[in-house]
Amino acid sequence: MMDNEITTWKIKRLKEDRVEELEDYIAVESPINIYVNKRRFVTIFASPQLLKELAVGHLVAEGIINSIEDISQIDVRSNNVLVTLSSSNIDLEEFKLLKSITTECTSIDSYIETLKSMSNLRIGSKLYVKVDDIFKMIRKMSENSKIYRKTGGTHVAALFNKDAKLLYLAEDVGRHSAIDKVIGLALINGCDLTNSVLTSSGRITASMILKAARAGIPIVASISAPLNSGLIAAEKIGITLICFVRGKRMNIYTHPERILLD
Q1: Would you name the residues annotated as active-site residues?
Q2: What is the CA radius of gyration of the chain?
Q3: pLDDT interval class at 179 (50, 70, 90)
Q4: Domain map (residue ranges) of the chain
Q5: How many other CB atoms are found less than 10 A from the CB of residue 72?
Q6: What's the whole-number mean pLDDT along residues 30-50?
Q7: Which residues fall within 8 angstroms of residue 16, CB to CB, at 6 or more apart?
């Protein structure tokens, strides 16, 4: 565990009738600047680790590039990530226009339809996963959330194969950035995500489903609740969304055919 992920703070803890003075562990959040072709593209407040993975995952998961092959060079300098794209034909202004258009949509439904028409997102995977393996994935994700266990201040995202083998895991103060990081980590290591399951500790929104779709991930499972935007996105795009995976219970909201119940 890197020192810059966690800091300490002197506190007074009240417990029953006692007052203790001690140092508490606190998760660190920092502004991370991502530069693309020498121009500052975005600043993300995130945990200051796995920064190269954050940049790669963010650019792919937000649809700015199609794959890691679109990147010719990437350097990390303190909290700045400098990305050079292999093609000068990628129009960053067009991406800003897309963000502007989608924020003007009048409903979640039209928001998803707009993104589908522009990005042609559709997951038609024939991946099947046993229900018991979904429980195993969530349990393994929780057991390996080292920063959360020490601070209580991070989200976690993980990628598994269909047999519940843990492939990659990332923690971050933000649930979106945790997903960006774990996707970037997998892509940097040459992993094919089309036969993987993404797990998360956070509430599932449309933007998180879109990240999974752009990476080709067919199944998303979370400990937490879905928002209606996440349900609409998953249903339309073709992603199996499972939430409230706790103990021996779960809710399968969309495309349940991929989950083997027997």
Answers
A1: 105
A2: 19
A3: very high
A4: 55-70+86-262
A5: 10
A6: 95
A7: none
